[in-house]
Amino acid sequence: MTFPTINYKYNSIPEAEELALVVDQKMNALEKFLHGDESITCDVEFEKVAPKQNGQVHRVEINLMVDGTMYRAESTEESFEKAIDKVRDEVVSELRKAKEKQITLDKQGGRAVKEQMLEG
Predict the structure, then answer these.
(1) Residue 90, Cβ neighbours under 10 Å: how many?
(2) In this predicted structure, what is the pLDDT of residue 2?
């Protein structure tokens, strides 16, 4: 499975083409959390938050919608590459937590059904 189409918003960033390629490569790490039958929408926004050249001025925001559930991450770093890495890690963490929560709920439901079968 390849990651679905990503919608980009560049806000007048000259290095936009290169950033899109970096995001495409980095977002492939999310494939193991996503299945082919889900509806997925991904929006990525790049922005320089200050006119100065030094410090944390590069902001990246990712909004990932998976079957009606929004996973959102935002980071402001010294470079776009660092910010992309940070938001990807945040989204991976959110997806992992959601997957673990679903597994726990499935197990609890299975236990409840088993107890009802044993009582009946």
Answers:
(1) 16
(2) 56
Beta-bridge partners for 65: 41, 70
Distance CA 43, CA 55 (A): 25
Give me the domain span that covers residue 10: 6-119
The model's pTM: 0.80
| pLDDT score of 47 more than 80 | yes
Measured over the CA atoms of residue 97, residue 22, residue 7 and residue 2, the dihedral's sign is negative
3-state secondary structure the chain: CCCCCEEEECCCCCCHHHHHHHHHHHHHHHHHHCCCCCCEEEEEEEEECCCCCCCCCEEEEEEEEECCEEEEEEEEECCHHHHHHHHHHHHHHHHHHHHHHHHHHHHHHHHHHHHHHHHC
Could you give the number of structural domains in the chain?
1
Contact 48, 55 (CB under 8 A): no
**87: pLDDT strictly greater than 80:** yes
CATH number at residue 50: 3.30.160.100
